[in-house]
Amino acid sequence: MRATSRSMGVDYAIREIVVPADELERQGMRVLRLNIGDPNKWDFETPEYFKAALREAVDVVDNGYGNSQGSTELRQAIVDREHEKHGVKITADNVFVTSGVSEAANVLMGTFLENGDEMLVPGPGYPSYTQYVKYFGGVPVPYRQMEEENWQPDIDMIRKRITKRTKGIIVINPNNPTGAVYPESSIREIGNIAAEYDIPLISDEVYDKITFDGKFFSASRLPSDVSRIILNGFSKVNLMPGWRVGYGYFIDEKGMLDEIFEGMMRQLRLRICSNVPCQWAAKASLQGPQDYIIEMNRKLKERADFTYKRLNEIPGISVERAKGSMFMFPRVELTKWKTDLEFVLDLLRTEGVVLVNGSGFCHEFGGSHFRTITLPPLPVLEEAYNKLDSFMKKRR
Fold it and tell me: What are the domain boundaries of the chain?
Protein backbone atom coordinates (compact mmCIF):
# COMPACT_ATOMS: atom_id res chain seq x y z
CA MET A 1 0.00 0.00 0.00
CA ARG A 2 1.31 3.45 -0.91
CA ALA A 3 1.06 6.65 1.09
CA THR A 4 -0.60 9.66 -0.48
CA SER A 5 1.58 11.98 -2.53
CA ARG A 6 0.64 14.88 -0.25
CA SER A 7 1.94 13.06 2.84
CA MET A 8 5.13 11.90 1.13
CA GLY A 9 5.68 15.44 -0.14
CA VAL A 10 6.00 16.85 3.38
CA ASP A 11 9.57 17.97 4.07
CA TYR A 12 10.05 19.68 7.43
CA ALA A 13 13.81 20.21 7.27
CA ILE A 14 14.17 21.19 10.93
CA ARG A 15 13.29 17.66 12.07
CA GLU A 16 14.28 15.70 8.97
CA ILE A 17 17.91 16.34 9.90
CA VAL A 18 17.19 14.66 13.25
CA VAL A 19 16.83 11.26 11.55
CA PRO A 20 20.52 10.92 10.53
CA ALA A 21 21.61 12.70 13.73
CA ASP A 22 19.80 10.13 15.88
CA GLU A 23 21.40 7.29 13.92
CA LEU A 24 24.89 8.70 14.44
CA GLU A 25 24.16 9.13 18.14
CA ARG A 26 23.08 5.49 18.37
CA GLN A 27 26.41 4.58 16.81
CA GLY A 28 28.21 6.39 19.62
CA MET A 29 28.95 9.82 18.11
CA ARG A 30 28.49 12.86 20.36
CA VAL A 31 26.05 15.18 18.62
CA LEU A 32 25.65 18.94 19.18
CA ARG A 33 22.10 19.84 18.19
CA LEU A 34 21.79 23.39 16.88
CA ASN A 35 18.72 22.65 14.78
CA ILE A 36 15.59 23.10 16.93
CA GLY A 37 14.40 26.31 18.60
CA ASP A 38 13.54 24.69 21.93
CA PRO A 39 14.78 26.94 24.77
CA ASN A 40 13.96 24.32 27.41
CA LYS A 41 16.59 21.96 26.01
CA TRP A 42 19.21 24.44 27.21
CA ASP A 43 19.42 26.68 30.29
CA PHE A 44 16.03 28.36 29.93
CA GLU A 45 13.55 27.20 32.56
CA THR A 46 9.77 27.45 32.53
CA PRO A 47 8.93 29.90 35.37
CA GLU A 48 7.91 28.07 38.52
CA TYR A 49 4.54 29.78 38.84
CA PHE A 50 3.61 28.51 35.34
CA LYS A 51 4.37 24.95 36.46
CA ALA A 52 2.52 25.42 39.74
CA ALA A 53 -0.51 26.60 37.78
CA LEU A 54 -0.41 23.45 35.63
CA ARG A 55 -0.17 21.21 38.68
CA GLU A 56 -3.12 23.05 40.20
CA ALA A 57 -5.08 22.87 36.96
CA VAL A 58 -5.59 19.12 37.04
CA ASP A 59 -7.32 19.55 40.40
CA VAL A 60 -9.31 22.66 39.47
CA VAL A 61 -10.58 21.84 35.98
CA ASP A 62 -12.86 18.87 35.40
CA ASN A 63 -10.31 17.29 32.99
CA GLY A 64 -13.03 16.83 30.43
CA TYR A 65 -13.28 18.26 26.93
CA GLY A 66 -13.10 22.02 26.63
CA ASN A 67 -14.51 24.70 24.35
CA SER A 68 -13.36 24.12 20.77
CA GLN A 69 -12.52 27.81 20.35
CA GLY A 70 -10.54 27.83 23.60
CA SER A 71 -11.51 28.49 27.21
CA THR A 72 -13.32 31.77 27.75
CA GLU A 73 -10.94 32.65 30.60
CA LEU A 74 -7.80 32.15 28.48
CA ARG A 75 -9.26 34.03 25.54
CA GLN A 76 -10.10 36.97 27.80
CA ALA A 77 -6.57 36.89 29.25
CA ILE A 78 -5.23 37.02 25.68
CA VAL A 79 -7.47 40.02 24.96
CA ASP A 80 -6.09 41.81 28.02
CA ARG A 81 -2.47 40.90 27.24
CA GLU A 82 -2.68 42.00 23.61
CA HIS A 83 -4.12 45.32 24.70
CA GLU A 84 -1.32 45.75 27.22
CA LYS A 85 1.39 44.87 24.68
CA HIS A 86 0.10 46.58 21.56
CA GLY A 87 -2.92 48.68 22.48
CA VAL A 88 -5.13 46.51 20.26
CA LYS A 89 -8.83 46.30 21.12
CA ILE A 90 -10.32 42.90 20.38
CA THR A 91 -12.92 40.72 22.09
CA ALA A 92 -12.72 37.10 23.22
CA ASP A 93 -15.08 36.23 20.36
CA ASN A 94 -12.28 37.13 17.90
CA VAL A 95 -9.73 34.85 19.60
CA PHE A 96 -9.11 31.14 19.00
CA VAL A 97 -6.80 28.71 20.80
CA THR A 98 -4.81 25.95 19.07
CA SER A 99 -2.25 23.26 19.84
CA GLY A 100 0.64 25.58 19.08
CA VAL A 101 0.98 28.03 16.21
CA SER A 102 1.64 25.08 13.89
CA GLU A 103 -1.95 23.88 14.25
CA ALA A 104 -3.16 27.41 13.56
CA ALA A 105 -1.15 27.43 10.32
CA ASN A 106 -2.57 24.04 9.39
CA VAL A 107 -6.16 25.03 10.02
CA LEU A 108 -5.86 28.41 8.29
CA MET A 109 -4.24 27.05 5.13
CA GLY A 110 -6.94 24.36 5.03
CA THR A 111 -9.53 27.13 5.21
CA PHE A 112 -8.06 29.60 2.72
CA LEU A 113 -6.88 27.35 -0.11
CA GLU A 114 -8.44 25.44 -2.97
CA ASN A 115 -6.25 23.63 -5.50
CA GLY A 116 -4.05 26.14 -7.32
CA ASP A 117 -4.67 29.04 -4.96
CA GLU A 118 -1.58 31.01 -3.97
CA MET A 119 -0.22 32.25 -0.66
CA LEU A 120 2.64 34.73 -0.37
CA VAL A 121 5.23 33.45 2.11
CA PRO A 122 8.53 34.96 3.27
CA GLY A 123 11.63 33.45 1.69
CA PRO A 124 13.41 32.29 3.71
CA GLY A 125 10.63 31.63 6.20
CA TYR A 126 9.42 29.06 8.70
CA PRO A 127 8.76 25.93 6.61
CA SER A 128 5.44 24.89 8.15
CA TYR A 129 3.63 27.58 6.16
CA THR A 130 5.05 26.43 2.83
CA GLN A 131 4.42 22.78 3.69
CA TYR A 132 0.79 23.34 4.71
CA VAL A 133 0.13 25.45 1.61
CA LYS A 134 1.35 22.57 -0.53
CA TYR A 135 -0.47 19.96 1.56
CA PHE A 136 -3.82 21.59 0.83
CA GLY A 137 -3.15 21.90 -2.89
CA GLY A 138 -2.03 25.52 -2.84
CA VAL A 139 1.03 27.17 -4.34
CA PRO A 140 3.48 28.89 -1.96
CA VAL A 141 4.84 32.04 -3.61
CA PRO A 142 7.96 33.27 -1.78
CA TYR A 143 8.92 36.93 -1.50
CA ARG A 144 12.54 37.73 -0.83
CA GLN A 145 14.03 38.68 2.52
CA MET A 146 16.98 40.86 1.52
CA GLU A 147 20.18 39.59 3.12
CA GLU A 148 22.09 42.71 2.12
CA GLU A 149 19.57 44.80 4.07
CA ASN A 150 19.65 42.70 7.24
CA TRP A 151 16.93 40.40 5.93
CA GLN A 152 14.24 43.03 5.49
CA PRO A 153 11.27 42.06 3.26
CA ASP A 154 11.34 43.04 -0.40
CA ILE A 155 8.20 45.17 -0.57
CA ASP A 156 8.36 45.59 -4.35
CA MET A 157 8.49 41.84 -4.84
CA ILE A 158 5.41 41.35 -2.65
CA ARG A 159 3.47 43.66 -4.94
CA LYS A 160 4.82 42.09 -8.14
CA ARG A 161 4.01 38.54 -7.05
CA ILE A 162 0.33 39.14 -6.27
CA THR A 163 -2.02 37.50 -8.78
CA LYS A 164 -5.74 36.82 -9.03
CA ARG A 165 -5.15 33.54 -7.17
CA THR A 166 -3.41 35.19 -4.17
CA LYS A 167 -5.35 34.44 -0.97
CA GLY A 168 -3.12 36.16 1.58
CA ILE A 169 0.27 37.50 2.65
CA ILE A 170 2.12 35.75 5.47
CA VAL A 171 4.58 37.73 7.61
CA ILE A 172 6.87 36.25 10.29
CA ASN A 173 8.12 39.01 12.58
CA PRO A 174 10.47 38.71 14.46
CA ASN A 175 11.66 36.36 11.81
CA ASN A 176 12.45 32.68 11.87
CA PRO A 177 15.01 31.75 10.46
CA THR A 178 16.89 35.02 9.96
CA GLY A 179 16.55 36.80 13.31
CA ALA A 180 15.34 39.97 11.58
CA VAL A 181 12.94 42.40 13.25
CA TYR A 182 10.94 44.37 10.70
CA PRO A 183 10.65 48.14 11.13
CA GLU A 184 7.25 49.75 11.49
CA SER A 185 7.59 51.20 7.97
CA SER A 186 7.85 47.72 6.40
CA ILE A 187 4.81 46.39 8.28
CA ARG A 188 2.80 49.45 7.25
CA GLU A 189 3.85 49.07 3.60
CA ILE A 190 2.83 45.41 3.57
CA GLY A 191 -0.46 46.38 5.22
CA ASN A 192 -1.06 49.01 2.54
CA ILE A 193 -0.56 46.41 -0.19
CA ALA A 194 -2.95 44.00 1.54
CA ALA A 195 -5.60 46.72 1.78
CA GLU A 196 -5.06 47.84 -1.82
CA TYR A 197 -5.54 44.33 -3.21
CA ASP A 198 -8.21 43.41 -0.65
CA ILE A 199 -6.35 40.35 0.59
CA PRO A 200 -5.73 39.44 4.24
CA LEU A 201 -2.46 39.68 6.13
CA ILE A 202 -1.48 36.73 8.36
CA SER A 203 1.16 37.81 10.88
CA ASP A 204 3.08 35.23 12.94
CA GLU A 205 4.30 37.12 16.03
CA VAL A 206 5.30 34.24 18.31
CA TYR A 207 8.66 35.95 19.08
CA ASP A 208 7.13 39.38 19.74
CA LYS A 209 8.81 39.88 23.14
CA ILE A 210 12.16 38.40 22.07
CA THR A 211 13.92 41.41 20.61
CA PHE A 212 17.23 42.99 21.56
CA ASP A 213 18.36 45.17 18.63
CA GLY A 214 15.11 46.36 17.16
CA LYS A 215 11.72 47.68 18.24
CA PHE A 216 8.85 45.31 17.50
CA PHE A 217 5.79 46.67 15.72
CA SER A 218 2.73 44.41 15.68
CA ALA A 219 0.53 44.14 12.59
CA SER A 220 -2.38 44.40 15.03
CA ARG A 221 -1.68 48.16 15.06
CA LEU A 222 -2.35 48.65 11.34
CA PRO A 223 -5.32 50.72 10.10
CA SER A 224 -8.80 49.23 10.07
CA ASP A 225 -8.85 48.76 6.28
CA VAL A 226 -6.33 45.90 6.64
CA SER A 227 -8.08 42.60 7.36
CA ARG A 228 -5.64 40.48 9.33
CA ILE A 229 -5.09 37.42 11.47
CA ILE A 230 -2.46 37.64 14.20
CA LEU A 231 -0.86 34.38 15.39
CA ASN A 232 1.02 33.91 18.64
CA GLY A 233 1.65 31.28 21.28
CA PHE A 234 3.31 30.18 24.48
CA SER A 235 6.22 28.05 23.24
CA LYS A 236 8.87 30.73 22.95
CA VAL A 237 8.28 33.85 25.07
CA ASN A 238 6.50 31.80 27.77
CA LEU A 239 9.05 28.95 27.67
CA MET A 240 6.36 26.26 27.35
CA PRO A 241 7.13 24.57 23.98
CA GLY A 242 6.04 21.09 25.05
CA TRP A 243 2.70 22.29 26.39
CA ARG A 244 1.46 23.00 22.84
CA VAL A 245 -0.75 26.04 23.30
CA GLY A 246 -1.03 28.72 20.63
CA TYR A 247 -3.59 31.32 19.71
CA GLY A 248 -4.69 33.76 17.09
CA TYR A 249 -7.20 36.52 16.61
CA PHE A 250 -9.04 38.17 13.75
CA ILE A 251 -9.16 41.93 13.11
CA ASP A 252 -11.62 42.30 10.26
CA GLU A 253 -13.83 45.35 10.45
CA LYS A 254 -14.84 44.93 6.78
CA GLY A 255 -16.17 41.42 7.39
CA MET A 256 -14.04 40.00 4.56
CA LEU A 257 -13.00 37.04 6.73
CA ASP A 258 -16.40 36.07 8.18
CA GLU A 259 -16.60 32.81 6.24
CA ILE A 260 -12.89 32.11 6.85
CA PHE A 261 -13.53 32.32 10.59
CA GLU A 262 -16.47 29.93 10.32
CA GLY A 263 -14.51 27.46 8.18
CA MET A 264 -11.68 27.56 10.69
CA MET A 265 -14.05 27.00 13.60
CA ARG A 266 -15.57 23.98 11.87
CA GLN A 267 -12.09 22.41 11.77
CA LEU A 268 -11.41 23.33 15.40
CA ARG A 269 -14.68 21.66 16.40
CA LEU A 270 -13.63 18.61 14.38
CA ARG A 271 -10.42 18.25 16.41
CA ILE A 272 -12.47 18.85 19.62
CA CYS A 273 -10.25 21.13 21.75
CA SER A 274 -6.79 22.21 22.77
CA ASN A 275 -5.23 20.78 25.97
CA VAL A 276 -7.51 21.97 28.80
CA PRO A 277 -5.14 21.98 31.83
CA CYS A 278 -2.42 23.64 29.76
CA GLN A 279 -4.85 26.38 28.77
CA TRP A 280 -5.43 27.07 32.47
CA ALA A 281 -1.67 27.33 33.03
CA ALA A 282 -1.23 29.46 29.90
CA LYS A 283 -3.73 31.94 31.35
CA ALA A 284 -1.67 32.15 34.53
CA SER A 285 1.48 32.77 32.48
CA LEU A 286 -0.11 35.88 30.96
CA GLN A 287 -1.34 37.29 34.25
CA GLY A 288 1.74 36.88 36.48
CA PRO A 289 5.17 38.57 36.57
CA GLN A 290 6.92 38.91 33.20
CA ASP A 291 10.36 39.93 34.48
CA TYR A 292 11.92 36.60 33.46
CA ILE A 293 11.80 37.86 29.84
CA ILE A 294 14.48 40.46 30.63
CA GLU A 295 17.01 37.79 31.60
CA MET A 296 16.00 35.58 28.69
CA ASN A 297 16.66 38.40 26.23
CA ARG A 298 19.94 39.27 27.91
CA LYS A 299 21.23 35.74 27.43
CA LEU A 300 19.93 35.51 23.86
CA LYS A 301 21.57 38.81 22.90
CA GLU A 302 24.90 37.74 24.39
CA ARG A 303 24.76 34.46 22.48
CA ALA A 304 23.62 36.12 19.27
CA ASP A 305 26.51 38.60 19.52
CA PHE A 306 28.97 35.75 20.05
CA THR A 307 27.49 33.79 17.13
CA TYR A 308 27.73 36.84 14.85
CA LYS A 309 31.38 37.44 15.73
CA ARG A 310 32.51 33.82 15.70
CA LEU A 311 30.80 32.77 12.48
CA ASN A 312 32.16 35.75 10.59
CA GLU A 313 35.66 34.62 11.60
CA ILE A 314 35.25 31.24 9.89
CA PRO A 315 36.50 30.92 6.29
CA GLY A 316 33.61 30.54 3.85
CA ILE A 317 30.94 31.61 6.38
CA SER A 318 29.24 35.01 6.73
CA VAL A 319 26.18 36.09 8.69
CA GLU A 320 24.02 39.13 9.38
CA ARG A 321 23.40 40.20 12.96
CA ALA A 322 20.18 38.93 14.57
CA LYS A 323 17.87 41.50 16.15
CA GLY A 324 15.36 39.08 17.65
CA SER A 325 14.02 35.52 17.85
CA MET A 326 16.37 32.58 18.56
CA PHE A 327 17.99 32.07 15.16
CA MET A 328 20.56 33.24 12.64
CA PHE A 329 20.85 32.36 8.96
CA PRO A 330 24.49 32.27 7.81
CA ARG A 331 25.67 32.02 4.23
CA VAL A 332 28.15 29.26 3.31
CA GLU A 333 30.38 29.08 0.26
CA LEU A 334 29.54 25.74 -1.34
CA THR A 335 32.98 25.13 -2.80
CA LYS A 336 33.00 21.40 -2.02
CA TRP A 337 29.28 20.63 -1.99
CA LYS A 338 26.55 20.72 -4.63
CA THR A 339 23.86 21.86 -2.19
CA ASP A 340 23.48 23.23 1.31
CA LEU A 341 21.87 19.92 2.30
CA GLU A 342 25.06 18.11 1.29
CA PHE A 343 26.99 20.62 3.39
CA VAL A 344 24.98 20.10 6.61
CA LEU A 345 25.05 16.31 6.20
CA ASP A 346 28.82 16.33 5.66
CA LEU A 347 29.30 18.51 8.74
CA LEU A 348 27.02 16.25 10.78
CA ARG A 349 28.81 13.04 9.78
CA THR A 350 32.28 14.54 10.21
CA GLU A 351 31.93 16.71 13.31
CA GLY A 352 28.59 15.79 14.88
CA VAL A 353 27.21 19.35 14.60
CA VAL A 354 23.53 19.50 13.62
CA LEU A 355 22.45 22.51 11.55
CA VAL A 356 19.49 22.90 9.18
CA ASN A 357 19.97 23.40 5.44
CA GLY A 358 18.82 26.82 4.28
CA SER A 359 16.94 25.46 1.27
CA GLY A 360 14.59 23.84 3.79
CA PHE A 361 13.32 27.36 4.53
CA CYS A 362 12.96 28.37 0.87
CA HIS A 363 14.34 26.76 -2.26
CA GLU A 364 14.42 30.05 -4.14
CA PHE A 365 15.93 32.33 -1.49
CA GLY A 366 17.33 30.01 1.18
CA GLY A 367 19.95 28.01 -0.71
CA SER A 368 23.65 28.30 0.18
CA HIS A 369 22.67 29.03 3.79
CA PHE A 370 22.00 27.17 7.02
CA ARG A 371 20.00 27.98 10.13
CA THR A 372 21.56 27.90 13.57
CA ILE A 373 20.14 28.65 17.02
CA THR A 374 21.31 31.17 19.63
CA LEU A 375 19.96 29.20 22.60
CA PRO A 376 22.94 27.14 23.89
CA PRO A 377 25.32 28.55 26.51
CA LEU A 378 28.52 30.11 25.19
CA PRO A 379 30.76 27.06 25.84
CA VAL A 380 28.46 24.88 23.72
CA LEU A 381 28.33 27.44 20.91
CA GLU A 382 32.10 27.86 21.08
CA GLU A 383 32.67 24.11 20.81
CA ALA A 384 30.24 23.77 17.90
CA TYR A 385 31.71 26.67 15.95
CA ASN A 386 35.27 25.55 16.62
CA LYS A 387 34.28 22.25 15.02
CA LEU A 388 32.70 24.14 12.12
CA ASP A 389 35.86 26.25 11.76
CA SER A 390 38.08 23.16 11.64
CA PHE A 391 35.71 21.48 9.18
CA MET A 392 35.68 24.45 6.80
CA LYS A 393 39.48 24.76 6.83
CA LYS A 394 39.87 21.07 6.00
CA ARG A 395 37.42 21.33 3.10
CA ARG A 396 38.98 24.41 1.46
Answer: 5-45+292-390, 48-287
